[in-house]
């Protein structure tokens, strides 16, 4: 079956630009080895820029070695998990590679998660070391003793800013105080291990062994294909291969001369690969933003105009409007790649009118490191599709009820993917791994797709019940459990409803306990206390009962119809 399926001949290769190979070469570098090659080649070039402050590749590697030694002296060794809970900042990049240099495993976390959300992940991975934003230090240090990491490093991200900006944040005026409060906070504990202390010693000895290609580099939490958050194990080989595929996919890249804008969070699989690995692999300048803000982007563009911008549709829309209003010049952007959610054709037109460059859509998931397909960077791109498979990547379209039965072109079925970027499984979840990884290496994506005879893929539906809002995955089960923990709610069903041009919003139907009256705004506030803001239902409707099947399963499609009226 693996060699005779309809797409074994890879008809999409005809759409590849002339310089894009059908296969990538052998993966020979771990991620620290990859970065070290860039350091040797681009020593004096800028690696990172943060609010105007810059760090060269040579200095970046020096800081990585200092951080690695600080972690080693505090017990981090090969195979240990180290949690990183940081927004985009120079310390995030340094911490990421310092952990990997020791052969340890990075575990990325969203720093705006609530205490409950973070605790769930810490309970799962059991990391004994954590490098955290000072604004969430108290949250992590307040975990129960059996969950709390033994070593917690507190990071003041403003230390990576230019001196003048740091001084401006200390001015005794409301605007400065407000800006400072967004970026930093003083932990309440008396004795705190700071990033400055961690990195204030000696450099790591070269003799300290590093990782192997098939060692796990990263645990990336995802709702996966089943809706339950779990850690996807991504190896150095997986991540390096995806960076190589990305480089092969973009003809005309200028090594050591591109400027990437990290407007996507580095803790997200998409931002991690495009910025933390791909950008570093080609010696690019990586301009870091702690959160997306049009004003910050406009300020940065005056000093370092972007040439490569990975983002999601809402960001492209906002930047396009700013450019149309004359607040931002986008003409320097040579490559723009959208992912994580559906890209409306109208967004493509707005962007290309405003920038004069191409905007293409790709497809991936955390389990594929994350990019598996993309539209060609040229005239053969096809807006409205997610493109064709990357080099060294194969696809099949199968019957969702029988993965051994391949379907013909044009017939919707479950998309399967196979390639060097496909993950090794879920952390400590062999049964769930077995559900999505078939014996011959094919990954069940849980997405329903159609494929044209020449290999262009269109995603039409999802088997999984995940909601994708603003590029982030939301597990309906998690939101339902939160709603049902409210004393006035007896049952809840959470679904995606359309929002704007191709986007999704979280919506919920609730059944109240007998005699209860609930304020819907108050119910949203209750959710906000337990969930990240993007998970909070934007619409909540009250029903007498939830529609269910004969065996009692909630019929989400009917819930969605009742909420939307369609």
UniProtKB/TrEMBL annotation:
Keywords, ordered alphabetically: Ligase
Keyword Protease: no
InterPro entries: AMP-bd_C, AMP-bd_C_sf, AMP-binding_CS, AMP-dep_synth/lig_dom, ANL_N_sf, ATP-dep_AMP-bd_enzyme
Region (Disordered): 373-392
Pfam families membership: AMP-binding (PF00501), AMP-binding_C (PF13193)
Molecular function GO labels: long-chain fatty acid-CoA ligase activity
Catalytic EC class: ligase
Highest taxon of the lineage: Bacteria
Protein name: Long-chain fatty acid--CoA ligase
Organism: Microbacterium paludicola
